[in-house]
Design a protein that fits this description.
Length: 640
């Protein structure tokens, strides 16, 4: 039997079947219900049939997480129809105002995370208290920071009174706006289930007022019926003006169940003996032996100062009572030496995370006999510890489970330290900003076995263009997603061209304040293709702020179809205001930073669980959000 003849090329092929004919609607709905929000919107952009199914799926989604773009209210409202199944909502609210509060405060919610609430007033707190009675987790930041907006104490009261099921509350706000004679007593109405409380900033006087109310309630519970404050609280994170002995003692008495204590102060004047932390205060930490995490940090944001009244004796006394600690963060302990830091490492057998900043007396000796410990450190940060050298890091590298290592501004570190680290089998994040490494160090990393996903080399002034091919000569090319090569004077356009040729699928690239980076670097990145994707497809963040060779010509390369996934762009605002504004209008979901601010947000890493896709369909997503439906007439006719 002769084979069938091929179809006549002149005859048109029959149109493919419509979506509902190819797959039952129930099957499509089941598939779409398994997708995250971003994937669901991308599917809706494909054709009319999927758009209809996606619209139905939005009514039943249990979670809506969209932190990568800040949608205005008129675009967000259609994506959040009435949905009794919605339990979790996470959004970037940079483009939202008070008229969106009704869209955010939903009675079915159990988890709510809102970033950049600058343009929303305190009415949001009031509405959440009135509507979200079953809310378990609430996280807000920057609420009401826009000029003219008000956040009042009564707003906070309504939130605490209404959300009686809260288990985790994070308000990254300035609590001085809530100053009121009843501030302390108002917390008696907070949820008894509250186990985690994080406050952006609270003045010392208000904090002590709250703790005093808690202690008084505990003392009179035996003979009078008194309100119960924080019966389940285990995690407390606060920022205040001063950390003092009195504060530490009050926390230890008022909150005996704490397992996680995180305190940071930022003095604007030099603390006196009565308003500072001393050895006596450290003795009062962890009287019940329940603490697993302790963080005591003194910020130098307003004043160059430290915990001058704490020495090795205080740390030794604290370590003796805190042997169960798994995480320790100490910043600004300028009089503590290797003796104190070594006591923590050797006393806490389960220590996994260690952070020391501005340890001006910390040397290699702190790790001299680290092999005598359990060697279970996974996260280590030694920022501004200028006396640590290659020898200390070589000994630290005996911890084979190291996953995150921050050595920023350890100026005595060189190539041999990196050589020791290059063979760590689990090291994913490495920060070497301001160290004394050369291209040889990058050669060690390139030939090493550590599965790096993030590498920061900012301010490593000895590096040259040769560091790029050396770094990407080995397996790092397959794993690296985040790279910072800012403030390296010798890096030029040639280095970026070498990077583009390597086709490394970087997600974030920072190269700010490099005088020899110019338009050619932007053109090379815009033309780079990764695994057959579109031009510049993998980059989501690109920081070019104050690069000396950037001209107005560079802005043309940020127009479509180039850099389809770009969400953060740093560029000098004075470059050409008209062209920068035009770019902002053509790409409304692109976060433009033109004043030198750092790009990205740490909260994405901490709270969001959105998946990093490898597709290049963000242009279609934007078009669907802005225009409604990117389906051509031919496609529509074919489906019908």
């Amino acid at each position: 039997m002769p084979p069938p003849l091929p179809p006549d090329p002149i005859e048109p092929c029959p149109p493919p079947p419509a979506m509902d004919a190819a797959l039952p609607g129930a099957v499509v709905a089941t598939i779409l219900s398994r997708l995250d929000v971003r994937s669901l919107l991308l599917a809706a952009a494909a054709c009319r049939g999927l758009r209809t199914c996606a619209s139905h799926a939005l009514v039943f989604l249990p979670s809506f997480h969209l932190l990568e773009v800040a949608l205005p209210h008129h675009l967000l409202r259609p994506l959040l129809p009435p949905n009794p199944s919605l339990r979790s909502l996470r959004l970037d609210c940079a483009s939202l105002e008070d008229n969106a509060i009704g869209c955010l405060a939903r009675s079915s919610l159990q988890e709510l995370l809102l970033l950049n609430c600058n343009k929303i007033s305190g009415r949001l707190l009031r509405e959440l208290g009135a509507t979200c009675r079953d809310l378990r987790m609430l996280s807000l930041n920057s609420l009401g920071e826009h000029r003219g907006l008000v956040v009042t104490f009564s707003d906070l009261q309504e939130l605490l009174n209404g959300c009686s099921q809260l288990e985790s509350l994070r308000l990254a706000l300035d609590f001085s706006t809530f100053d009121d004679p009843n501030f302390g007593r108002a917390w008696a109405s907070a949820s008894e289930r509250l186990s985690s409380l994080e406050i952006g900033y609270i003045p010392m006087t208000m904090l002590l007022e709250l703790l005093t109310a808690v202690v008084e309630a505990q003392q009179c519970m035996d003979y009078v019926k008194a309100p119960v404050f924080f019966p389940s609280l285990q995690k407390l994170c606060l920022t205040m003006d001063f950390i003092t002995d009195h504060l530490i003692g009050s926390i230890s008495v008022a909150l005996p169940s704490l397992t996680h204590l995180d305190l940071q102060d930022a003095p604007i004047i030099e603390p006196t003996s009565s308003s500072d932390l001393t050895n006596a205060g450290l003795q009062q930490i962890n009287p019940h032996g329940k603490l697993k995490h302790i963080s005591l940090m003194r910020s130098q944001e307003f004043l160059v100062t430290s915990f001058r009244r704490v020495n090795d004796l205080g740390i030794l006394l604290m370590a003796d009572k805190c042997s169960n600690l798994e995480s320790v963060c100490l910043g600004g302990f300028s009089r503590v030496t290797d003796t104190g830091f070594r006591a923590i490492i050797h006393s806490c057998s389960g220590l996994h995370k260690l952070r020391v900043s501005h340890g001006s007396h910390l040397t290699d000796l702190v790790f001299h006999d680290i092999v005598a410990t359990s060697l279970c450190l996974t996260h280590v940060s030694l920022r501004w510890c200028k006396l640590i050298t290659d020898i200390g890091i070589e000994r630290l590298s005996f911890n084979k489970d190291l996953n995150v290592l921050d050595l920023r501004d350890c100026r005595s570190l060189g190539d041999e330290a990196v050589r020791a680290l290059s063979c760590l089998p689990k090291l994913q994040t490495l920060s070497l900003d301001g160290t004394d490494i050369s291209d040889e160090a990058l050669k060690y990393l390139g030939l090493g076995t550590c599965p790096l996903t993030s590498l920061s080399l900012r301010g490593c002034r000895r590096l040259t263009n040769d560091c790029i091919p050396l770094l990407f000569a080995g397996s790092v090319k397959q794993s690296l997603q985040v790279l910072d090569i800012s403030r390296i004077p010798s890096v030029t356009n040639d280095a970026i061209m070498l990077l583009a040729r390597s086709r490394t699928p970087l997600v974030e690239l920072r190269m700010r304040e490099n005088p020899k980076i110019g338009d050619a670097a932007v053109m090379a990145l815009a033309s780079m293709q990764v695994d057959g994707g579109t031009y510049g497809s993998s980059l989501q963040l690109l920081d070019l702020y104050d690069c000396g060779g950037i001209t107005p010509l560079a802005t043309r390369w940020f127009k479509k179809p180039y850099f389809p996934r770009l969400r953060w762009l740093g560029i000098t605002g004075s470059l050409n205001r008209v062209m920068v504004d035009a770019l902002t209008r053509s790409r409304p979901f692109l976060h433009m930073a033109s004043r030198g601010e750092e790009l990205g947000t740490m909260l994405w890493d901490t709270y969001s669980d959105w998946y990093r896709h490898n597709d290049d369909d963000l242009d279609e997503l934007e078009q669907w959000l802005l225009d409604g439906e990117p389906v051509s007439d031919d496609d529509t006719a074919m489906e019908e």
